[in-house]
Amino acid sequence: MKYFSMLIKPASSLCNLKCKYCFYHDVASNRETYCYDVLSDETIENIVNKTVGYFKEPAQISFAFQGGEPTCAGIEVFKKFINQVNEVKKDFHDIHYSIQTNGTLINDEWIELFKEHHFLVGVSLDGYQSNHDLVREDRNNQGTYDRIMNTIEQLKKNGIDFNILTVLTSSLSNHAKELYKFYQEHDLSYIQLIPCLSDFNHESEYGLKPKEFFNFYNEFFDLWFEEYRKGIYRSVTFFDNIIPMFAGIPPQQCGAMGFCSMQFVAESNGDVYPCDFYVLDQYKIGNINQNTIVELAKSKITQEFIQEKRVLSNQCNSCPYNKMCRGNCKRMSGVYFDLEYCGIKEFLEAKEKQIVAIAQTL
Ligand SMILES: C[S@@+](CC[C@H](N)C(=O)[O-])C[C@H]1O[C@@H](n2cnc3c(N)ncnc32)[C@H](O)[C@@H]1O
Ligand code: SF4
Ligand code: SF4
Q1: What lines the ligand 1 site, CB under 6 Å?
Q2: CATH code, domain with 178
Q3: Cα–ligand 3 centroid distance for 62 (angstroms)
Q4: Of 9, 24, 199, which is best to mutate to test ligand 2, by the most ligand atoms within 8 angstroms of its C-beta?
């Protein structure tokens, strides 16, 4: 079985919120064109024909919609995309859709679409209200917590698969207990905690530091483990990735593989980039309206991007966890380690006994 995935930005960097740490706002500000037009019919056709149409044998193909705020493109764009897929796809194609959304524009029509086409929905929710509303404001400086909790209710009521994306900022890292309690109280079981990245050109006050990473996970893990021992499993991306590695199972997440891979990130005008963190002019590989996916995968820029040297910590040379961690994502490395200290290493040293015990049961 072949696998292929593409991340598409139907509304480019357009968004109805102005979250204080938004990395895509920073990425888009560092290129010549901040925002491209909404995905056109031509680009939809080319994306679908050149991906789904390329596979002449069984293949699992995943389309992930993201942004900016993908729902700002309007629901018709999504319907056209899905119709085009349905025209091109054969029985041997297994198509998956997912979306990452700020959750503020989701109405009954979106819910129907997600339900009908089995979307996995990633909803950005930065935990309890006072933290969420502090960092995730709309254009009128209003917090968005209530609207998002309402969307989550709708997703639950309609049996739609969803996970929670929480940005772990410097300040939130001091509140592991409150955050864990919040997930418990709201019965949120699929959690992706994303360490907050600083901007390309300066350290933001929200950016997570390696010691904060350790302090947070040191406490958060204990709370998680206490539940785990009682047979309650809350899926937390970092644990889901790191624990199986102690059982010799290869990592799932790009950052944990020790090298970068080609992610096929398509901006709304069809320009393709290797990774969501690098949607910058100098990393543009080509355009799906002019190139095939083979040309894009084999291009010089793609190969250079994959092989680009990553900065490691002095700690890495003699680190017993080298095989488990592999230096991590090159864009994210600053939140995990600096030259002299590594938060992942301190975490693994502190929790190795428990982690190994779980890994032995896998
Ligand atoms: C750029 S947003 C695009 C999708 C959608 N607008 C949303 O907010 O969910 C994708 C994810 O990146 C997260 N994110 C934004 N800025 C970040 C940063 N500086 N560091 C880490 N994650 C960040 C968002 O919270 C969201 O979960
Ligand atoms: S909703 Fe998403 S794209 Fe919009 S500002 Fe917030 S993180 Fe950025
Ligand atoms: S855990 Fe830290 S020190 Fe060890 S290999 Fe990974 S990044 Fe390097």
Answers
A1: 15, 21-24, 66-69, 100-102, 124, 165, 167, 194, 196-197
A2: 3.20.20.70
A3: 31
A4: 24
In this structure, is the dihedral angle defined by the CA atoms of residues 60, 239, 148 and 102, taken in order, positive or negative?
negative
In a domain, 213, yes or no: no
Residue pair 99/66 in contact by the 8 Å Cβ criterion: yes
User: What is the rounded distance in angstroms from the CA atom of residue 279 to the CA atom of residue 274?
Assistant: 8
pTM for the model: 0.95
* Closest protein CA for atom 1 of ligand 3: 345
Say whether 26 is catalytic.
Answer: no
Contact 291, 301 (CB under 8 A): no
Q: What is the total count of domains within the chain?
A: 1
CA-based torsion, 99, 185, 237, 138: positive or negative: positive
ipTM of the complex: 0.95
> Going along the chain, which residue ranges are E strands?
2-8, 59-65, 93-101, 120-124, 162-168, 190-195, 235-236, 265-266, 271-273, 286-287
Q: Is the CB of 345 under 6 A from ligand 3?
A: yes
Nearest ligand to the C-alpha of residue 213?
3
Per-residue confidence in pLDDT tens, the chain, 362 aa:
899 999 999 999 999 999 999 999 999 999 999 999 999 999 999 999 999 999 999 999 999 999 999 999 999 999 999 999 999 999 999 999 999 999 999 999 999 999 999 999 999 999 999 999 999 999 999 999 999 999 999 999 999 999 999 999 999 999 999 999 999 999 999 999 999 999 888 888 999 999 999 999 999 999 999 999 999 999 999 999 899 989 988 777 776 667 778 889 999 999 999 999 999 999 999 999 999 999 999 999 988 888 887 778 888 888 998 877 766 778 888 899 999 999 999 999 999 999 999 999 98
Does residue 292 belong to any structural domain of this protein?
yes
67 lines ligand 2 (CB under 6 A): yes
Any domain includes 113: yes
Counting ligand 1 atoms within 8 A of each CB, the residue from 25, 165, 278, 333 with the most, and so the one to mutate, is: 165
Catalytic residue among 26, 126, 271, 276: 276
Q: The domain containing residue 277 runs over which residues?
A: 2-208+254-308
For residue 159, being part of any structural domain is answered with yes
Which atom in ligand 2 lies closest to the alpha carbon of residue 24?
8
**Given the CA of residue 344, which atom of ligand 3 is nearest to it?**
1
234 CA distance to ligand 3 middle (Å) = 25
Extended strands (E) in 263-331 = 265-266, 271-273, 286-287
